[in-house]
Amino acid sequence: MLPKSSRIISMKIRLIPLLFTLIFFSWFTKPAMALVYPFTENNHLELLPDPYASKDLKLELVKNAKHHIHIMTYFWDKSSFPTELAHELNRAHERGVEVRIISTFFPSFVTDIFQKAKKNLKLKSKNPNTVFSYLPLKLYKGLTFTNNIHEKLFLVDSEVAIIGGRNIADSALRGKDMEVLARGEIVNQAQDHFKIMFDFINELKMKSDCSTTAKSEKKIAKSELCKKSILKTTFAADDENYFKNYQQINIGSIKARLLTHEAIIKQYKNNYHPLERAKMSDDILDTIVNTTEFKTVRTYNYFILPTDRYMNFLVKAKQENKDVLIITNGLEAATFSSNKGYLFGISYMEKLIKENVDIYQWKKNPYSNNKETYVHAKVLTFDDDHGFIGSHNLGFGSTMSSNEMAIEFFDTKLVTELNEAFDREIQNENVTKKATSKLLTTEALEYEWPIKILKSETVENFLKELY
């Protein structure tokens, strides 16, 4: 427990962003949470390594959508791809397709201060049975700076789902990333998770936007109208258009399941103090660290900012003479977003290297056909048949403050494809360089004062939430 004076100072500093953004919050208690989804056997999964092909596929799916399009993304900005996608979503809605989009308010606000992207999404259909919802998430509670919808889901007609690490933004086209196109029973799980999050945000929105303590009939009536407007967009629990029972024939044979980490719901249910948040249950991380039967683990990490659980898992694996290989951003590549996450992670990288963990740093890579200038992939594989692809960065932020999702699957073909790409990258000196204690010591000395500031208590807690 922090001293009272420190807690007061920390609270005041954390409230500053609220004053700038003029956001008010309301308390929300005991929402429903999803259980861990079971493995399903009848799935088809296809890797989407090319960001431009993925972009074109999403546009094509929208053009051919029949009933609904459901999207979750960390942010939605005003760059060219989101603008083009908004145009196609509007056209789909005009022909009666339901469109629902969930994004996080704060990063969307920063990247698009005038909310032009939201204005590009316009309700044009007069059909009262269709819904066009854009729900920016505004959540501030328990001394936290922000909570994030960090899942990346693109779901069409409950028939196909794209899950991975790419946001709806042109910047997503310049990163080393991965998505998976899914068909089969696992799509039902993705649809179920979307419903849970959409209904949660709707209820939160109702409490914050429609609540009133006034006793005047006019304000009470206004409150009721507000609630009715929001209720119109909620899901019917028995709507078979969303939750189909797939015929388990000719869809695929891959064993897979959806894993989620509903950090936002858990925070609102339990009101964790920031120092407790890194210890909360995290189905994605916990599934990974509880895996014991493997010889080699390969993983991409945006930055090396491991929780104790992940750090202990990596160190223990090395102590058991297993191969642990990590690709992460180097200092130059990290500047794509901010070098603060990289600098903050130097001490963790030093600890892992002392334990003989192999860390390879991505260079700002001008040699790739797709100009992959930084690493944003959230991929982990065990040996040659067990893999995870999703939105989880395996760092503090993904456990402490971000909703995440990932597909866990068993398939030799897909995992071999991922491993071969990984091995090519660590063997190509134009793409990566191996991190050494000497390199990290030199960087730590060069950035000594910035690192000291980043490691100060208040800044450190903020960065852990952010990354």
Question: Which secondary structure elements does this structure contain, and how are they paired or packed?
Answer:
Layout: H1 4-21, E1 40-48, H2 51-63, E2 68-73, H3 80-94, E3 98-104, H4 105-111, H5 116-120, E4 132-137, E5 148-149, E6 153-156, E7 160-164, E8 175-176, E9 179-184, H6 186-209, H7 217-231, E10 254-261, H8 263-270, H9 274-277, H10 283-289, E11 296-301, H11 308-319, E12 323-329, H12 331-334, H13 340-354, E13 358-362, E14 374-375, E15 379-382, E16 386-390, H14 396-400, E17 402-410, H15 412-427, E18 432-434, H16 437-446, H17 448-454, H18 457-466
Parallel strand pairs: 2-3, 3-4, 5-17, 8-14, 11-12, 12-13
Antiparallel strand pairs: 1-9, 1-10, 2-6, 6-7, 7-9, 10-17, 11-15, 13-18, 15-16, 16-17
CATH topology of the largest domain: Endonuclease, Chain A
CATH architecture of the largest domain: 2-Layer Sandwich
Strand content: 15-25%
Gyration radius, rounded: 22 Å
Low-confidence stretches: 4-31
Helicity, as a percent range: 40-55%
Shape: globular
- CATH C-level of the largest domain: Alpha Beta
